[in-house]
């Protein structure tokens, strides 16, 4: 099993690219050719795959935080490129959603006009409501796009915060290692001082014994010389 620091990222990236390929195929092929409920079902599957791709991007960004600094910038660029492509596909899907809704509204209007059961005043009112509904959909799409832009900006801020936290963690780990090394040095110095103190006491005892022996010898010599023969 590959245990390199980029192995899991590469696996996520492969899944991400497969999902993008699937979404791109649906948007450029099936969703444009289909009509009605078939198109809606395809667009729902596209929405689910886009959400899944979003989650994978988040996992990829988490994996980048644990990579060595020498390769981190390269992989961050790959994530940014993937996010740009995902945003493009999401916008394309929204356009197709809007197109499908407009087609459904226009189809309903055409059916009402061909039935002949509505008078001219009601038909004019119906067209007005349809136009208002279309404008409401356009406004909703714009709000969704603005919300998506804000979400991306928030995501970038979150990624920056994660990077800063990772850098701070590395600093704390280095400080901890330095403290451990200092503690080890203090322990070694303490052991050396204890040995020196023991040797000093031993030297004092030896010196005291020598002095006592010398005094005893001096006393014995003096006693021998001064004592009557």
UniProtKB/TrEMBL annotation:
Subcellular location: Membrane
Pfam families: V-SNARE (PF05008), V-SNARE_C (PF12352)
A single cellular component GO annotation: SNARE complex
Principal location listed in the UniProt entry: membrane
Protein name: t-SNARE coiled-coil homology domain-containing protein
Membrane-traversing stretches: 205-223
Span of domain T-SNARE coiled-coil homology: 129-196
Similarity section: Belongs to the VTI1 family.
Membrane topology: Single-pass type IV membrane protein
Listed SUPFAM superfamilies: SNARE fusion complex, t-snare proteins
Lineage summary: Eukaryota, Fungi, Dikarya, Basidiomycota, Agaricomycotina
Example of a GO biological process term: retrograde transport, endosome to Golgi
Keywords: Coiled coil, Membrane, Protein transport, Transmembrane, Transmembrane helix, Transport
GO molecular function: SNAP receptor activity; SNARE binding
